[in-house]
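Dear H.,

Thanks for agreeing to be a second pair of eyes. The structure we're designing against is below in token form, covering all 434 positions.
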């Protein structure tokens, strides 16, 4: 595609649905002092892009797609200078030429939500790839509140307490395709797993202690030491993971990683109607569990999953159900599969419809429901740690156990959206310069 100076190529969505066009549009410029302009090296295609593509997100204006990108800073607003004290550290340290990744939403780093780690609901939050905030499936992207939003990959270990000191040495060795997973899907999988496995209703099984002594915060004197441990069978966890797209796969890997580290006994049913997606999980599970003696995973389609859970639990249901699809049929299945006092952790993005169960149904099973967007910044150190330890799954492109299927150019953008929508491929990345 011929480009004039000042123009770039980007993947654009046109409402109402299924209309993807590769267009020449102006290269973004600094608009506000806190902005940065990033030259994109790779951009991800995500299940969340599909909600926009299918028209279920109700987007009424054309927009530049994409919310996962890794790239290099080419311009910085006037807020970036060595003496920018009292602000997130990137305002005084980020330089043109630095390699960065961006969480999929903007966060200021300065509001109460950002301070407590709930960065996904920053008061300045905007989603890349929406009409208000043009996305990363482009050659260049403008990043608002960039000092709070971006990660400078050269600095990442210094910024994040708790990250091992040697991490900094490894980051330059990671492929860009691997780093891109940190923008969204790997932290989201870790978020789902962390949230569910630390839930007060799941801690009895994780810690082998009865409720409520299983929880860290109980009023009065701790009686931990006096409590008898749960009988081994009572501490077994039964888990369902509904939806085995790229985010479902990350959720599986993160949950299994926590369970192995905890020494838990578990049975997981990993559910998807699409056979190729189930096969990917089977292959990944045999890779990541080969030296583990505890735990068990079986893949299933929807009907088979109901039969398996009933058989495994004498009809009681799962302790934890992950909903990683984003539609009401998946939520309904989650309700069917969960046991009394179980939790449903939903990270699927839901459109404007009611949840498919009544308050009475939730009451009658004492179900906990968790919904919502991943706070990528809060999960980043754990996600990076998992990324480094599981390079067997996250580093290669196109292998039997690779999470990423392929890297393609913008010339096949429309076809690639169609394929991903029909589940004919797994995670795909775009190289805007190919
Ligand atoms: N909460 C967050 O922060 C966050 C972050 C990233 C993605 N997401 C959301 O996570 C979801 C999954 O993303 P993805 O990239 O893996 O998408 P995807 O569309 O590739 O995967 C969804 C999978 O669910 C399967 N499926 C559909 N209906 C089902 C049903 N009733 N039961 C079982 N499986 C069913 C599909 O076959 C598909 O494999 C999407 O809704 C996406 O928007 C949320
Ligand atoms: Zn995404
Ligand atoms: Zn904020």
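And this is the sequence the design step returned. I haven't edited it by hand at all.
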């Amino acid at each position: 595609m011929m480009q004039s100076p000042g123009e770039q190529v980007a993947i654009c969505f046109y409402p109402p649905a299924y209309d993807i066009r590769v267009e020449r549009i102006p290269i973004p410029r600094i608009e506000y002092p806190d902005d940065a302009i990033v030259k994109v090296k790779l951009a991800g295609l995500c299940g969340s892009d599909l909600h926009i593509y299918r028209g279920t997100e109700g987007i009424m204006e054309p927009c530049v797609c994409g919310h996962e990108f890794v790239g290099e800073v080419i311009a910085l607003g006037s807020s970036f200078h060595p003496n920018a004290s009292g602000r997130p550290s990137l305002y005084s340290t980020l330089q043109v030429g630095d390699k960065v990744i961006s969480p999929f939403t903007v966060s200021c780093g300065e509001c109460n939500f950002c301070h407590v780690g709930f960065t996904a609901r920053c008061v300045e939050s905007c989603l890349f790839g929406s009409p208000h905030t043009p996305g990363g499936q482009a050659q260049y992207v403008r990043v608002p509140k960039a000092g709070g939003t971006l990660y400078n990959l050269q600095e990442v270990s210094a910024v994040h307490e708790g990250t091992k000191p040697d991490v900094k040495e490894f980051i330059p060795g990671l492929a860009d395709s691997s780093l891109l997973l940190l923008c969204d899907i790997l932290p989201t999988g870790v978020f789902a797993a962390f949230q569910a496995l630390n839930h007060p209703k799941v801690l009895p099984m994780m810690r082998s202690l009865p409720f409520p002594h299983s929880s860290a915060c109980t009023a009065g004197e701790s009686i931990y030491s006096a409590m008898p441990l749960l009988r081994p069978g009572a501490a077994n966890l039964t888990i369902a993971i509904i939806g085995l797209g790229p985010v479902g796969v990350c959720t599986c890997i993160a949950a299994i990683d926590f369970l192995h580290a905890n020494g838990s006994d578990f049975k997981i049913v990993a559910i998807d109607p699409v056979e190729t997606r189930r096969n990917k999980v089977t292959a990944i599970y045999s890779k990541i569990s080969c030296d583990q003696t505890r735990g068990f995973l079986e893949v299933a389609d929807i009907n088979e999953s109901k039969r398996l859970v009933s058989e495994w639990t004498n009809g009681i249901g799962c302790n934890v159900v992950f909903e990683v699809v984003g539609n009401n049929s998946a939520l309904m299945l989650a309700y069917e599969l969960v046991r009394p006092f179980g939790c449903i952790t939903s990270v699927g993005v839901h459109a404007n419809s009611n949840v498919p169960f009544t308050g009475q149904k939730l009451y009658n099973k004492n179900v906990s429901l968790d919904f919502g967007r991943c706070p990528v910044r809060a999960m980043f150190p754990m996600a990076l740690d998992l990324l480094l330890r599981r390079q067997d799954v996250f580093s290669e492109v196109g292998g039997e156990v690779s999470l990423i299927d392929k890297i393609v150019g913008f010339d096949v953008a429309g076809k690639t959206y169609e394929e991903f929508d029909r589940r004919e491929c797994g995670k795909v990345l775009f190289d805007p310069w190919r």
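Two observations from my side: The pocket of zinc ion (ligand 2) is lined by residues 46, 48, 67-68, 104, 184-185 (CB under 6 Å). The two ends are 11 Å apart (CA to CA).

Warmly,
E.
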